[in-house]
Amino acid sequence: MPTSSRRATLATVAASAGVSVATVSKVLHGRSDVAPETRSRVESLLRQHDYVAPPPRRGEAVGSDTVEVQFDGDICGYSAEIIQGMVTTGAEVGVGVVVSIRKDPDLTVARARDLVAAGRRALIAVTSELTAEHLAALSRVRLPLVVIDPLNMPPARVTSVGSTNFAGGLAATQHLLSLGHRRIAYIGGPATASCNQARLHGYRAAMEAEDTPVPPGYTRFGHFRYRDGLEDGAAVLDLPKPPTAIFVGCDESALGVMEAARARGLRIPEDLSIVGFDDTQIARMTSPPLTTVRQPLREMGAVALRTALRLAAGEPIDSPHVELATELIVRGSTASVTR
Amino acid sequence: MPTSSRRATLATVAASAGVSVATVSKVLHGRSDVAPETRSRVESLLRQHDYVAPPPRRGEAVGSDTVEVQFDGDICGYSAEIIQGMVTTGAEVGVGVVVSIRKDPDLTVARARDLVAAGRRALIAVTSELTAEHLAALSRVRLPLVVIDPLNMPPARVTSVGSTNFAGGLAATQHLLSLGHRRIAYIGGPATASCNQARLHGYRAAMEAEDTPVPPGYTRFGHFRYRDGLEDGAAVLDLPKPPTAIFVGCDESALGVMEAARARGLRIPEDLSIVGFDDTQIARMTSPPLTTVRQPLREMGAVALRTALRLAAGEPIDSPHVELATELIVRGSTASVTR
């Protein structure tokens, strides 16, 4: 923590209020031997200077240090893997992992100040859309931030952890091409999300390398959710010339596509091959088990936590952005083309 | 927190060491104005008396209070729902939820002491098998405990939150009977787990009420895991007279049974009806979507957190054990018997 800048703030506040640093300290500690008028003047100046109380003194106890991991929506299979990686690493280094879900009102300066005052050493935001205001709020209270799999590409000064989405999209599509498929669709996430764009372009690169055209209507963008997979799967399967294989940008969406196929009497993999993305636990449990691109989500959680702690300790980090390798996991949802 | 008993400990240690309480306090706070010999005598006595340092002073900041939720194994879909409920409630009451995974070495006095010193207000253990030693360790450091869905029936003095497992097993089986099924199998969890026993007996009660015998080999007990569902599903489906419907004690196991059915060319629900238990997110995403008994896991997480905070604050609780209602959710994996 930037102790020296905190001291500077106290001195500045004391000077502005025309009192001693000791008096400012008394106000901070809720002591009663300060005149009400002085107290209110000092408190107002502390707020103006964005004074952040130091976190509770770090004890010897394992887990008294905490890091907060914040998700943008419900805790899903994807979140579970990241939590697993963080909690395992947190136990190794003696840091507690506090889970939260981002809510409106958003990441304001007040909220960021709360996090610091609550003893959080760093914030890890997962699949968040971050604005300049969010970054300014965190920077103002000097709370280190690491972003996992950001939906938009964060500015260079934001530390982030992702996976090799382009290579994953390429591998998924090459796998389908190698099975003889040519009519291959892509069902992705938000059109503007950088991870979606990287997966899409991996798919496009593989198709182009085989001189295989992407017919109109063969790429669709929704959200990385089951329901979107169900709807977008239905849309491509109802095309006059439907695909024989679909690369889906997320396991949950892939399950939606599987259900759209079942509803149309299509068997997987005999009539339709499907590749997912993520390799969350459900990928091993679908019927048939899902061929998918593994994102090392646990490792991403572990790396994000370690990086956040390095930032909190003022230690140097290797790179502001790290991508861990994706890997194609072949299971039962893909087979050679039969029609 | 039991402040008064902590004061008693300090006085006892001071008396045993032949020093003042102020001197004991100095040792605790690492002050240098204590003779090395005195310090080591006091420290040794503090250890003997299981003295636990008070948690960091509670600030105004939202989330500086933390509660730890501890899972017995990997963070799965079931855990995700409980975390979701706790985190949502935690945000409402300003308490941070620290997630951890139980590890060997187990819940010892030292580990319990660490939790208190790290500022945890309470521990919530999920699907844990708790021994008298675990309870003694927590009680010794006066850390409140709430258990969710305990695998063994905890003693009356342990506070626990569960769901109406017997009623759920009854409803699942009645649903299958009402569809005309008579050859109904049960694939459950650990034979000794109380939630498994309650679900099994709900199934038995429904079968008996319809004078429907349970043939040999029709009840199987493994773990609440996909792999067990796959193996036990295969075992009952390979019986000379296989069931036309299976009630499975957990969604993940139900997915294993679905895969065992698919591998045998059986269509769901045309050839085999399946009912799960839990209603985790995957139940809505299987193909076909899974008919299941909903456990209100988010609400169970919320109730456990609120109860833990009441215990931590020394407030009375309504009952040491609460069961929230289960509910049958009919989806696409069950249909009228056709053979």
Structure description:
The structure is a homodimer of 339-residue chains. With 339 residues, the first copy, chain A, is α/β, with parallel strands linked by helices. Chain A folds into 3 domains: 3-48, 434 Repressor (Amino-terminal Domain) (Orthogonal Bundle), CATH 1.10.260; 65-163 and 298-323, Response regulator (Rossmann fold); 165-295, Response regulator (Rossmann fold), CATH 3.40.50. Helices cover 42% and strands 17% of the residues of chain A. The first copy, chain A, is built from 11 helices and 12 strands. Chain A has helices at 3-17, 21-28, 36-48, 77-93, 109-117, 132-140, 165-178, 194-209, 226-237, 251-263, 297-312; strands spanning 65-71, 95-101, 120-126, 145-148, 159-163, 184-188, 219-221, 245-248, 273-278, 291-294, 321-324, 327-329. In chain A, the strands form 2 sheets. A 6-stranded parallel β-sheet of chain A has the order 2-1-3-4-5-11, with helices on both faces. The first copy, chain A, has a 6-stranded mixed β-sheet with strand order 7-6-8-9-10-12, sandwiched between helices. In chain A, α6 (132-140) links the parallel β3 (120-126) and β4 (145-148). In chain A, α1 (3-17) packs across α2 (21-28), α4 (77-93) packs across α11 and α5 packs parallel to α6 (132-140). Chain A is elongated, with a radius of gyration of 25 Å. The model of chain A is unreliable at 54-60 (pLDDT under 50). Chains A and B meet through α4, β2, α5 and α10 of A and α4, β2, α5 and α10 of B. β2 (95-101) of chain A pairs antiparallel with β2 (95-101) of chain B.
